[in-house]
Write a structure and sequence with these properties.
Elements: H1 8-18, E1 24-26, H2 32-37, E2 55-57, H3 62-75, E3 78-82, E4 101-105, E5 112-115, E6 120-124, H4 129-137, E7 143-144, H5 155-160, H6 168-171, E8 178-184, E9 190-191, H7 193-204, E10 214-221, E11 223-224, E12 229-237, H8 242-252, E13 260-267, E14 270-277, H9 281-291, E15 303-305, H10 307-316, E16 335-344, H11 350-359, E17 367-372, H12 376-379, E18 395-404, H13 409-422, E19 447-448, E20 451-452, H14 454-465, H15 469-479
Parallel strand pairs: 2-4, 3-4
Antiparallel strand pairs: 1-2, 5-6, 6-10, 7-11, 8-9, 8-10, 12-14, 12-15, 13-14, 13-17, 16-18, 17-18, 19-20
The structure holds dihydroflavine-adenine dinucleotide (FDA).
Length: 498
């Protein structure tokens, strides 16, 4: 349903009164399209039929964010917030349904300040993780932070969904290392951890972006890495035993020493084993010989570098790319993509892996990325944060397809069919998914009497959050009972007495 709108004109007038006009881009402004597109990461949401915002506001101060929320509340216009714009369904800047809304784009709020003696940092949501990593490690090769892989991801959305990456087996998710936050509520109040209380602080660390309010800044605990780390990329084709080795990896990957993460990318008729080891080549060779001899890794596979260089290497596939490239915000919009996700709790048999590889010979085939859990991840209780996929999870599966222009039919058909095929082999009742790999295909909210229903939200919500979904909905009811911050997959308020 289209929300009842008080007055878009009064909303824009309110913004102009409270926020410097050069920070407010309306649809009639000549810079509007440029600002809107600046961090769109999926060409799927850059079409003539995409439902665009009424305006984009680019605050340079917390007070502008507060003012935007107050204008939106009083004039009945919803806001969506964008940090890095990487949402797989574009929910930070477009609506899947007809709707009039504004966007608060945090691109100007992107400071990172490191406290070397405390080994902590404050990072603004508008920073990219590339900027975060670079600022942490450029002058101290032994400091790092555990989060995702693509340097242009925004801190705001990424941390809001948990943030998995190559060091989670040692240090957990990004949100396992968040100490404090600055947050603007649906009433326009600016709160820190003490002010918001532990329930809301729990919810914003993984309960998904766009539901509770706007996180401006995060205080994080930095982690220690050795001055040099070791990486390898080993490809195994079917002829080289890819089926056996992937089958074996399912048991080995999640139980290796926490210092070693080996993820797998299956594409075509081969599997790429990509490793980050927080230690030396010789000790990696010894560990691999002992625990995963099937991969036949040798010292010739070792690539030794600083942790920051390893981030650049894994992002750009080129050891010569300078670490400064991690600061670039430019991405290509030429390729379309769509993702889905699963979690695997019981290793899939060799026979099924043979069948899985045959899917990658089909028309429209994409790739899958397997991210091992276990280690530290398995020691965190399910309800410690909203991210429930902890003990018992072997690995996350991300399915991705890519296409150019209008030619998405074969790719999307393959994705849907392959996802159905995988159903019996992955987590069930409900089937689980990762909120940061957002997928509107698993369910969308139902709005009744201008409030998102709990039962409608449960359909997708229990897939992302399992038993944590109900607590998230209770927090939502406490902090945003009228459901101001709403999108197609925002947490619904659980009204007492239901
Ligand atoms: P964006 O700005 O689009 O926001 C995403 C959602 O969060 C939206 O609903 C938005 O409204 C909300 N939001 C944004 N800022 C907010 C704020 N300050 N306060 C409250 N809500 C806010 N994930 C992962 O865990 N590990 C990985 O390695 C990768 N790798 C990866 C690569 C690539 C190429 C892409 C496109 C994506 C990933 N991801 C990932 C997924 C990524 O974590 C996810 O898309 C994040 O939500 C992106 O955060 P952005 O701020 O960029 O998105």
């Amino acid at each position: 349903s289209v929300p009842c709108l008080a007055s878009p004109d009064d909303f824009l007038q309110c913004l102009r009164e409270k926020i410097p006009s050069e920070l407010v881009y309306t649809q009639s402004s000549s810079s509007f399209a440029g600002v809107l597109v600046s961090s769109i990461r999926s060409a799927r949401f850059l079409t003539n039929t995409t439902v665009r915002p009424l305006c984009v506001v680019t605050p340079t101060d917390a007070s502008h964010v507060q003012a935007a929320v107050l204008c939106g509340r009083t004039q009945g216009v919803r806001l969506r917030v964008r940090s890095g714009g990487h949402d797989y369904e574009g929910l930070s800047y477009r609506s899947a349904r007809p709707e009039v809304f504004g966007v608060v784009d945090l691109t100007n709020l992107r400071a990172v300040s490191v406290n070397q003696s405390e080994t902590t940092a404050w990072v603004d949501s508008g920073a990219t993780i590339g900027e975060l990593y670079y600022t942490i490690a450029k002058d101290n090769s032994q400091l790092a932070f555990p989060a995702g892989l693509c340097p242009t991801i925004g801190v705001g959305g990424h941390f809001s969904g948990g943030a998995i990456g190559m060091m989670m087996r040692k240090y957990g998710l990004a949100v396992d290392n968040v100490l404090d936050a600055k947050f603007v509520t649906a009433n326009g109040d600016l709160l820190d951890r003490a002010g918001m209380g532990e329930d809301l602080f729990w919810a914003i660390r993984g309960g998904g972006g766009g539901s509770f309010g706007i996180v401006l800044s995060w205080k994080v605990q930095l982690v220690q890495v050795p001055p040099m780390v070791t990486m390898f990329n080993i490809v195994k084709t079917l002829d080289q035993g890819a089926v056996d080795i992937v089958t074996r990896w399912q048991d080995v990957g999640p139980s290796l020493p926490n210092d070693l993460t080996i993820r797998v990318i299956v594409q075509g008729q081969q599997a790429l084993f990509q490793a980050l080891y927080l230690g030396t080549c010789s000790s990696l060779v010894a560990t691999m010989g002992d625990q995963f001899p099937e991969l036949a890794m040798t010292s010739a596979d070792c690539q030794s570098m600083t942790w920051l260089q390893s981030i650049a290497f894994i992002s750009f596939w080129n050891r010569d790319t300078p670490v400064e490239a991690l600061l670039s915000r430019t991405t290509s919009l030429s390729t379309y993509s769509k993702s889905k996700s699963d979690y695997v709790q019981n290793a899939i048999s060799k026979g099924v892996w043979k069948d899985i590889f045959s899917w990658f010979t089909m028309n429209g085939a994409g790739l899958v990325i397997l991210e091992p859990h276990g280690g530290f991840m398995g020691s965190v209780p399910t309800d410690a944060t909203p991210y429930p996929h902890r003990s018992g999870v072997l690995y996350n599966v991300q399915y991705m397809v890519f296409w150019q222009g209008d030619g998405g039919t074969a790719a999307n058909t393959w994705l849907g069919n392959f996802y159905d095929f995988m159903g019996p082999y992955v987590s069930k009742n409900p089937r689980q998914a990762y909120v940061n790999y957002r997928d509107l295909g698993i369910g969308q909210n139902v709005v009744v009497d201008d409030v998102t229903t709990f039962d409608g939200g449960k359909v997708w919500g229990e897939q992302y959050f399992a038993s944590n979904f109900q607590r998230l909905a209770s927090v939502k009811a406490a902090v945003d009972p009228t459901d101001y911050f709403r999108n197609e997959q925002s947490i619904p308020p659980l009204v007492q007495g239901l």
